[in-house]
Amino acid sequence: MIFNKGLIMQIGDFLYSVIILPIEAVIEFVFNFSISKMSMLGAGGAIILVSLTVNFLALPLYNIADEIQLKERAAQKRMEKWTSHIKKTFKGDEQYMMLNAYYRINNYSPVYALRSSLSILIEIPFFIAAYNYLSKCDVLLNQSFFILENLGKPDTLIKTENTAIHVLPIIMTVINCVSGFVYSKDAPPREKVQIYVLAAIFLFLLYDSPSGLVFYWILNNLFSLAKNIIQKYVKKPGIIVAACFDIIFAFASLYFMFFKPETGFKKKCVVYLASLVVFVLPFILNSYSKFFEKRKIIFNENKKSYFLAFIFSALGMAILCGLYLTSSMISTSPVEFSFLGNTDPPLSYLTSSFAFALGLFVLWPLAVYLMFNDKVKYALTYIFVWGGVSVLFNSLVFRQNYGTVSIFGELDNSSPLKHLTVIQLAGPALVIVILTAIILLLENKKKLNYIFPAMLSVCLVYTGISCKNIVSINSVYKEASAKKIPAENTADNKQIPTVYSLSKSGKNVFVLFLDRAIGIFTPYIFEEFPELKNTYSGFTFYPNTISFSDSTNKAAPALYGGYEYTPEQMNLRKDELLLEKNNEALLVLPRIFSEAGWQVTDFDPQNPNYSSTDDFSPFEGLHNTKVLSHVSGISEKYISDHPELSEFSNADLRVKKTLPKFALLQMLVPIARNTYYNGAKYFSGEYISLSKDFIKSFSELYYLRQMTDFKAERNTYTIMHNMLTHNPTLLKQPGYMPSKNLSGIPAGSKCTYPYSIHNDYSDIKHYEVNASALLRIADWLNFLKENHCYNNTKIIIVSDHGFRDTIQYLAPGFSRNTDYGCYQPLLMVKDFNAEGEIKTDNTFMTNADTPELTLKNLGLADSNPFTGKKFSSDKTGGFNLYNANMTDRDYDPSIQKKNTKFNLYLERGFHVQDNIFNQKNWIPLDKWFESNPGDKERAALCGVKVNGEK
Question: Which GO molecular function entries does the Swiss-Prot or TrEMBL record give (predicted)?
Answer without folding.
Answer: membrane insertase activity
